[in-house]
Amino acid sequence: MTDIQIPFGWNAYQTCSTTSCSYSYIQEQGVSYWRDSNIIISLFFYVAVAGAYDISLISDEVQREAELLVSIPSISFNTYARFNAESLYLSLGSIQINSPGYIQVYFKGTNSLVNRKAGNYPKLKSLVLSQVENSNSIYYVRDDFSSHFGRRGPSVHLNYNLESNYQIQQFYNEVTVPRFWDAVGTYAMAIGFSYGYFGMQVNSNSERRVLFSVWSPQVTDDPSSILQENAVLLVSKGENTVINSFGNEGSGGQSYLVYPWVAGVAYKFKLEGKPSANGYSTFSAYFNDPTKSEDYILIASWKRPKTQSYLNGLYSFLENFSPENGYISRKAYFNNLKALNHQNKEIKVQSASFTYDQTAGQKQRLDYDGGVDKVNGFYLRNCGFFNKTSVQYGDVFVKDQV
Fold first, then answer.
1. In 39-142, at which residue ranges do the beta strands (DSSP E only) sit?
2. Fewest Cβ atoms closer than 10 Å to its Cβ: which of 57, 233, 288, 328?
């Protein structure tokens, strides 16, 4: 038997029981500066083996007496954690897990008299599972992994297999984010290739973008360090396209259109790429909103130095770039894919291979999925702590066989 400490800083999220509430701080140290009783803190972990487990709470600091309601709705468990200045470790009793899956534990301040005193709620550091026979049967984001990427959740990819990869000059994809699956932080990337990526994002509650970025051949996360000979050069851009450089995940040229795309619409993406003069290749991204027009609009066209290439390494992905929203599930469909070579001959997209990032690869998070739907095309799903499906890394999806 062993004890497992599940850190709040890597596995907890804040939600609110009313339309507005103040914010606590969830950092690597845990949950702190929590005063508002309308706030709900949710902690997630995955149990692979059914059984009975003892659970406890570890706090770093208790400023005053306080009472928290602790609930696990999926197993009808409810208890109260009553803290005082002497109680940094509290036993919450035993829970019975009857089937494998994700467990969500809620923490909320009660309306008791003791909670009306001044001061913060206890700092929550860890939830402890005791009586664990096999530590490998409990999955959660560990404190030796990046809390940023762990709380974001796994990124998932579709790598497209074409009947020929020779001199692909154009690639088309239609992307639909279903209604209610467009949480802030969603990036449904329609067309990725060896030198960049192109798709649509939910940047905030009030802003959405269509984004096209091309990496510089100079490997650096600092765009200011790129030599002029390695700079990605703008050829042309759409009327309302914003042009920037970008860094932190490679560096290069960034272009985006602030655009109020909506969930439930199949937006069309077209990417062109071919060698051009003086050792450059030119990559151009076009976008179409079928509810507005049949015509594509230019997002931007970039020249990449030290490159003589058509389009290769074609893929799509779905990610969440907002760690605070990693508890919300996302989904995207990719349909009506088409490739054209340099002679304008159509090249069939035969299948798509499923892969994921290290967050899933190291089993920090298991909430990922991918597949194919006969009507809507290939799909990807991630985040939200839904129970793991049977999809495996490297699985190949073929739409015609559905």
1. 39-47, 51-61, 66-72, 77-83, 89-97, 101-109, 123-132, 138-139
2. 233
Q: Three-class SS of residue 237?
A: strand
| Domains assigned to the chain | 2-140 (2.60.120.260), 151-401 (2.60.120.200)
Which H or E element spans position 296?
none
Cα–Cα distance for residue pair 47/98, rounded to 1 Å: 10
* β partners of residue 287: 269, 297
Q: What is the mean pLDDT of the chain?
A: 92
Token readout for 205 is 């509650």
At residue 11's C-alpha, the angle toward residues 365 and 384, to 5°, is 55
pLDDT at residue 292, rounded to an integer: 96
Helix (H, G, I), strand (E, B) or coil at 114: helix
Asked whether 310 and 276 are in contact (CB, 8 A), the reply is no
Query: Six-digit token pair at 85?
Result: 């200045």
Q: Per-residue pLDDT tens for 289-323?
A: 999 999 999 999 999 999 999 999 999 999 999 99
Query: pTM for the full model?
Result: 0.93
CA distance 96 to 239: 60
Residue 41 carries which side chain, given as an amino acid letter? Answer: I
